[in-house]
Amino acid sequence: MRVLIADKFEQSGVDGLKTAGCDVEYQPALKDDALARAVSELRPDVLIVRSTAVAEPALIAGALKLVVRAGAGYNTIDVAAASRRGIYVSNCPGKNSVAVAELAFGLILSLDRRIPDNVAALRDGKWNKTDFSKARGLYGRTLGLIGTGQIGKEMIARAREFGLKVIAWSRSLTAESAAELGIEHKASPIDVAREADIVSIHVAMNKDTKGLIGAAFFDAMKSGAYFINTARAEVIDQDALAAAIENKGIRAALDVFAGEPSGGTGEFTSPIAQQVYGTHHIGASTDQAQEAIAAETVRIVTTFKDTGKVPNVVNLAKSTPATCTLIVRHLDRPGVLASVLDSISAARINVQEMENIVFEGAQAAVARINLESAPPESLLTQIRESNSNILELGLIVL
Known about the structure:
Blueprint: E1 2-5, H1 11-19, E2 23-26, H2 32-42, E3 46-49, H3 56-59, E4 66-69, H4 79-84, E5 88-91, H5 97-113, H6 115-123, H7 129-132, E6 142-146, H8 150-161, E7 165-169, H9 175-181, E8 184-185, H10 189-195, E9 198-201, H11 215-220, E10 226-229, H12 238-248, E11 251-254, E12 277-278, H13 287-307, E13 324-331, H14 336-346, E14 351-358, E15 364-371, H15 377-386, E16 390-397
Parallel strand pairs: 1-2, 1-3, 3-4, 4-5, 6-7, 6-9, 7-8, 9-10, 10-11, 11-12
Antiparallel strand pairs: 13-15, 13-16, 14-15
């Protein structure tokens, strides 16, 4: 299996792929047209990226079967274009959770104790204990989480040790599951904003979360509250945040920015960067996280190589146009399913999904074939009579 790595990647991951028998090409500087050319020339089966954008020209340039985002999000990959080509897209969820939670708490502490300003003053030759000794402290405050996935859960564990009360909203969070986590469930993001002294964002970027945190959210926040975003820039309305900083004294720290450079270095100017404590989209950038992500990437590629199955795939249809399931109980003989599919094809009925389960001893099997439209009784009779190895047919309306 040919693998192209078009981004920085841990040596342990490269070694793991080679040990698994993959032919690995490591070109971490590829992007845009150069990436498409490399896919065309090298014709890899698998493409591995981190922050490198994968647009449609790269997806259609060669014979890609799988794109692995060596990280949690996958918004830099044209998933729709990959789906049209039958290319799997997979990611490594949860492997950077500890690293992101650590950075988020670093930013919270930095806001509360004004650590960057302390450092800047000392380097400027100024001693200002009188001003910098004023801090609220975290103990007894309320941390509001937007999102309680793997990173959110790591935040909860750390908040407990700091003596913070935790309230949270997530699409999947219920009062019961919140109680199991030892936190308080809120019905909406606005409810979190109203009560929290500190808000930290931990949701994935998708059509449902784009612009989730807007003017109404910031209007609901307490004056002078802290706001942390280590998720994705597109989740928040940066203009609304800038207004809240100006008008409500919201203090913010961001690891992600709109329009940030896609590579490791580059020029970057942003008005909001002058208003917040900022880091350079480094949430997942610890040795621990990158080793874990590399190991998971190797597992994904190796599983695909050995079984044809893809762990963590993100672009399979959640539902299909199938209206019924044809159940075929048959002897495990050559050509049985071929004859069934030939008949279905001749009737111009589209197959959406299918599986064939073989019983112990490999004498008999049951096939389940999801069909876009129901076959008429005459076709079922034809299928039954066409092959003596078919034991029984059944039809389930979905």
